[in-house]
Amino acid sequence: MMSRILLVVCLAALAAAPLVLPAYFLTVLIPFFAYSIILLGFNLLFGYGGQLSFGHAMFVAAGAYAAAASYSILGIASFEIMLAVAIVAALCLSIPLALVASRFTGIFFGVLTLSFGMLLHSILFKFYHLTGGESGMRVPRPTLLGMELDMYNKTGFLTGPFYYYCLILLVVLGYIMWRLVRSPYGLHLTASRDNPVKALYLGVRVRWVRTVAFIVSAVYGAIGGVMLGVLTGLADPELSYWTHSGHLVFMTILGGYQQFLGPAVGSLVMILVQDQLMAETQYWRFFVGLALALIVIALPGGILGGLRRLKLKKEGKAHADARQRRPARSTA
Hints:
mainly alpha; 76% helix; LivM-like; branched-chain amino acid transmembrane transporter activity; ABC_transp_permease
């Protein structure tokens, strides 16, 4: 109950943020919304399915390039159309890859997804006439629900209507993912992670549930990629580079991949720490790595995992103290 109340308070604070925070901090929160959506999908594959992908950033890039292509090829600048094109692109890319990758587990799955991601990066980087090469493709300012919103400048658009649109999108997709992991499918997925042989013996279609997790995570990644593309105004091939995939893995572990909201917490901490250190020193990469390494060492289960372990420890101590205070029963 307390966790739900805390979640409602956090959402209310995010909804009220444009009223009290400067525009700069709001533009920092939009990547948090995008990465939270991306990592909700990634955690379905990794946290609940036990399949660690080192090439998941390719779907983020697919979403950003789909948003750019919907304008440059179709001549449409609707955000809803961009999302639809991105979902179709994610499905077209992920379904054949999922059918192949779901046959493997462990390091073999990770290396295979890494190779797929690097292959897409090479295509985006080398096919200049199609993708713009290293310059990328421009993502225009979209319309929202058919409204041009010309009364806003770029900053006003991002920190106003687009901010709330992304927040609502995060809430809706977060609720859908919550229902998914609590459904019978979610139980089958975790069973295939914990003991695939026993799950298969009990009738779980292990390869099928892993394939679905791969496809759903790809769709979530593409949606987040559209949001990042609109924010920066550019679809860049570096979005699909292996270091970006490692970035996603690190944020997930940082927040706690065994917790539903852990990846979202990890993305927020990572974005805020990195932004603050970039403003303070040119050696920000060193301090970001040091600070986050210390967090991971001190909290091996991630931030939320560490808080949960501390809570369980306090509850166990309280139960032990209560037992000690009970009067001993008479044996007479």
